[in-house]
Amino acid sequence: MNTSISASWGRHINVIPPQSGEPALAPISSFVDGQCIYSCGERADQVYRVEFGAVRVYRLLANGRRQILAFHFGGDWFGLQSRDRHSLNAEAIGVTGVRYINLQEEPLCRPALFSAALENFSAAQEHQLVIGRQSAIERVAAFLLEMSERSGYSRRFELSMSRVDVADYLALTIETVSRSLTKLKHRGFIELHGARGIELVGYRSLQNLCL
Amino acid sequence: MNTSISASWGRHINVIPPQSGEPALAPISSFVDGQCIYSCGERADQVYRVEFGAVRVYRLLANGRRQILAFHFGGDWFGLQSRDRHSLNAEAIGVTGVRYINLQEEPLCRPALFSAALENFSAAQEHQLVIGRQSAIERVAAFLLEMSERSGYSRRFELSMSRVDVADYLALTIETVSRSLTKLKHRGFIELHGARGIELVGYRSLQNLCL
DNA sequence: CGTGCCGTTGACAGGCGTCAAGTACAGTGG
DNA sequence: CCACTGTACTTGACGCCTGTCAACGGCACG
Q: Which CATH fold topology does B134-209 show?
């Protein structure tokens, strides 16, 4: 799926910097596309770190809708939870590897986990602003910039997730996402290479949209 | 402002349980209504705890809009930040007292702060779901239930914030908030006592709205 | 009683969701 | 090599929800 990227293209950061004296990390567990990593209601006694691939964290609502709260890529910690049971689901996007630590065996309050929690918190707040106060086209622009940042600020990259995922992340419909991408293309801000390939032609223009 | 509450009414929890061996808490600092506690760009080397009153945390966007990310009441920690400078603003709602700890003098990674960070994170996620996937009336219902919870699950309570604040928290306009409240009243789910007084008549019905 | 602020209500328009049809592309099998 | 199929994505038509603009009502305060 997202393994067929031309070599010259940026991708999401999959290289993990060597951790300094972080013990008790289990070996890499591998997941196929769409496979559940944890689900709502399960005991939350592990914290995960993405090694390669990507992860979506979401909840299903009673009206049948799905809200994706976050995407996680290589190096990101996820699964931190304020209660002892998960209130969200996590699934692999494409072939994905994660490692985890067991919270029973480890002190919960570690600097690495603390800053991971703050990073997650900060990302959630930024996303609140996007879905709260931005129009459809602004949300899509913000999303593209975010994905660019997370693939090392590359101007050209490939989305690892489908339109449905993008829509559920931005609290839009796939049709609106599609239309917004088309508008951005017509305005000369981006170019589309196939369904997943994105090129940011007008980086500054995109940023101006998101103010 | 929110000091003129009839004694029989629930209020937001202002009583602080005695902390067990938590040192270095500065004495209470008092703020008047609307006073800034910290603002975007300042160094974030303090973490605050509400002693009485309430706090709104928000950001102003370029289009002139304001998004309130969270309200904080007695006992809540706020001001935790992943970077060394604040990216948000915090203001007092009504007469408000806070205490803070200095992060320079204290180890950042303490259990109390860690769980505070996770609580903040969790609240941000729940709020993402509300503003992402709920209609106007569902958001208002969810808000009332949240305020009820935070005033000790009382059926009858008084809002400490204005309609503008509610609107900016729910990513709506004041008109839509007002209309939604009227609808909830006409459906017999709530009763309004003045502008700020709320009585939840149909608690279950409200919950069913928010599924 | 006038003034100002806050909240409510109404009329209207626009953006986005919904429904539906059309296109592109990969995989499969003949 | 090509037809067939299914999935993902795009585009179009239309309606509703919510934002915008405006007027009105209630209440505190001077």
A: Arc Repressor Mutant, subunit A (1.10.10)
**Which nucleotides in chain C lie less than 7 Å from some protein C-beta?**
6-11, 15-20, 25
Tell if the CB–CB gap between B115 and A82 is shorter than 8 Å: yes
The closest of B196, B201, B200 to B3, measured between CA atoms, is B196
User: Which positions in chain B touch A119 (Cβ < 8 Å)?
Assistant: 82
Identify the CATH assignment for A3-129 out of 1.10.287.470, 3.30.1490.20, 2.60.120.10, 3.30.450.20: 2.60.120.10
- What is the tens place of the pLDDT at every residue in B25-81? 899 999 999 999 999 999 999 999 999 999 999 999 988 899 999 999 999 999 999
Measured between CB atoms, which of B69, B114, B211 is closest to A114? B114
Q: Decide if B51 contacts B99 (C-beta within 8 A).
A: yes
CATH 1.10.10.10 domain range(s) in chain B:
134-209
Could you tell me the distance in Å between the CA of residue A1 and the C1' of nucleotide C27?
14
Any chain A CB within 8 A of the CB of B175? no
Nearest protein residue, CA measured to C1' of C17: A173
- Give CA angle at B192 (B186, B196), nearest 5°: 140
pLDDT tens, position by position, A126-162 = 999 999 999 999 999 999 999 999 999 999 999 999 9
How many other C-beta atoms can be found within 10 angstroms of the C-beta atom of residue B164? 13
For residue B127, name the pLDDT band (cuts at 50, 70, 90): very high
pTM given for the model: 0.91
User: CATH 2.60.120.10: which residues of chain B?
Assistant: 3-129
Q: What residue ranges in chain A does DSSP mark as E strands?
A: 29-31, 36-38, 46-60, 66-72, 77-78, 89-102, 156-158, 190-193, 197-200
The number of beta carbons lying within 10 Å of the beta carbon of residue B83 is 10
